[in-house]
Amino acid sequence: MKNYKFGVMMKSLLLAGLIASPAVVIADTIKLGAAVSLSGKYSTAGNHTQKGYDLGVKYVNSMGGVAVNGKTYDLEIVYYDDESTPARGASLAERLILRDKVSFMLGPYSSGLTKAIAPVTEKHGVPMVEANGASRSLFNQGYKYMFAVLSTSEQYLQEAVNQIALKAGKPASEITVALAIENDPFSQDIRAGVLDDVNRHGMKVVIDDKLPRDLSDMTSTLVKVKALKPDLLVVSGHSKGAALSVRQMNDLGASVNMLAMTHCESAKLHDKEKFGNLADHALCAAQWSPSVSSEGAVFGTAGNYSSIFNDTYGYVPPYQAAESTAAVIVMADAITRANSLDKDAVRDALAATDLSTFYGQVRFSEAGNNIAKPMILRQLIDGKYYVVAPANVAEAELVYPRP
Length: 403
What we know:
The protein has 403 residues and is of the alpha/beta class. The protein has two domains: 2-151 and 292-363, 3-Layer(aba) Sandwich (Rossmann fold); 155-286 and 376-393, 3-Layer(aba) Sandwich (Rossmann fold), CATH 3.40.50.2300. The protein is built from twelve helices and 18 strands. It has helices at 2-14, 43-62, 86-98, 111-123, 158-167, 185-201, 219-228, 238-252, 272-275, 302-313, 319-338, 343-351; strands spanning 25-26, 29-36, 66-68, 71-81, 104-106, 128-130, 146-148, 176-182, 204-211, 232-236, 258-261, 283-286, 295-296, 300-301, 354-357, 360-363, 376-381, 384-389. The strands form four sheets. Strands 1, 2, 3, 4, 5, 6 and 7 form a seven-stranded mixed sheet that branches. α1 (2-14) crosses α2 (43-62), α7 (219-228) packs across α8 (238-252) and α11 crosses α12. The longest helix has 20 residues, at 43-62. It is globular, with a radius of gyration of 21 Å. The N and C termini lie far apart (54 Å).
């Protein structure tokens, strides 16, 4: 009975997007709003986000939707393209809430866009479940209506620092680290986390470069990398940074024993037609992988979700899609447990979430971040990703040094 009720709730969440009433209900649907980057800088990951939302809604609805006070609803999402621009994202959030009358929101892609939208949803008391804003600075603002299913950004490359400490074969004080980090909120939070970990181990930072937001060239940083030969190079520059780093390192003949980065999948580093073996043995931070052992009521295992997504869209889901689907599941679960469409009741249900999903366990701190799911580190080898850390979820041994 419980699973049926959750299934009913899930269906209702998917169709919620186009409903227009203060209670978010029209024609037995619940309207969810989402401003997503379908064009502009973040369009690749923004499209993964939309696909993840859509698949979540489809399966919630197919399981019977969402049950509220004896009635069942389908979910529907109202989308707008924020064009990868924070100011437009904030404006569209106002439009969704005031004109389209959504009562619940799904988050945008990126920490920068989430930072722009969160004050709007907070002002109007609209619960938002977000899946792609990991900056830890989002969770020290005292927001009460924002909940994030993903791990925060300072954890992204923590395992890379731990692994170089284990693998370098010399005292930590002799290990050198280079940072090439984009100057945006998400990436700079990653930098802060890496620096915390580097300092904790007692390593030495020899390069600490901020990359421009309109990143198009990393030559100046990589020339220094070639000259100084750091043990570990950390790159966080979204998909452009990942692609540029492997291409231009090859062009310049620069190499490091360990290369760790974000956004490998968004950059399609695994696409051998685009990159050949240029990215082989890079370490890639990930929120999730199809190989993890997570399981939930809606899609079953992580592997099963991956198969469904692949069958639907023709490619293996990156974690940006998986966490977006998880956001829909969490929202649906909260509405069901609240047994109400009242925004504050749903907000309180979200705060009390403790849910097993294909994506991992979801349990929120008082600040709204997920405190139940760790980050993972994968290594790209011959076009495939293998989880190599942490040890309790590793499926392969980390190859070091990078050939």
